[in-house]
Design brief:
single chain, 342 residues, 11 helices, 33% helix, 3 domains, 15 strands, alpha+beta, Methyltransferase, Cobalt-precorrin-4 Transmethylase, Domain 2
Length: 342
Amino acid sequence: MTILNEIELKKLLDEFRSLPSENEWVEFKEAKSNFHFDDLGEYFSALSNEANLKNQPYGWLIFGVKDKNKEIVGTQYRENRADLDRLKYEISRHTNDGLSFVEIYELFYPEGRVIMFQIPAAPKGMPTSWKGHYFGRNGESKGPLNIQEIESIRNQRMKEDWSAGICPGATIDDLDKTAIEKAREEYKKKNPRLAEDVDKWDDITFLNKARVTINGQITRAAIILLGKPESEHFLAPAVAKMTWILKDEHNIERDYEHFGPPFILNTNELFAKIRNLKYRYMPDQSLFPIEVNQYDPYVIREALHNCIAHQDYTLQGRINVVEKPEELIFTNLGEFIPKTIE
């Protein structure tokens, strides 16, 4: 996020005014005294989405400049600075995820006051909406974002490995030592020929080799799998939570518990909550009962691990395991392997 000073802003405004025409991510409006609030919100959505599609970090809505000849005419829109700043909150109430202006700048010229609204590009994979609708631009015209552009933004999520993203400020001290040791054990089971080498590696070397960190930098995957409970803030606004819920035969909730990072340890804690009862039956022509578990432990773990691996954490939901008397229900947000039970 970049906040600009007056010199940078005036240089940027000069560049925008020198463009032969408005482009999809810059819009000029006179707004001499007022501007309809819904129009402002729709332009926020449109310019945010177009900035994403044009690989720009920000869109810009500029008041006090004519849209045809780029002449500065000045604006009296919300001359009280407190009223202008309140727009950030007012806009955030009607956009998805509370998105709002990065900053609202005022510039003063002999010709009059200019307002520059700095609008963040839509997050990758998530178009910016205004009151539940997506807007875009076709040349200088504002209108609904077409389905091809909506899908273009949504498909960005598929191209980006969110879990490999670096967590700025996170260090090895934000990871749980016991979780790292557990990861070493599992790594040696999967790579027995490297077992002796693994014991000689320090933690950063091991985590780099296991591709949980990148050149010693802590990834989101590292926080999810190995992070201390208090390190979850590095993932915000994404959510990393597993929830076990116990329901009776009438579908009434009887108990529950939430689990956060480190998932490599807390999957065992969640697994231990599941009451995997034993069934006893007498085979034909035998006096000795055979005992079997209600559920195969491997199947439970495999389903839970798939939920973790394929959860879309940016959707801010939980991985849920609902235990009923005769069934276990696993749900996550995102995709699941296999894609259908069949």
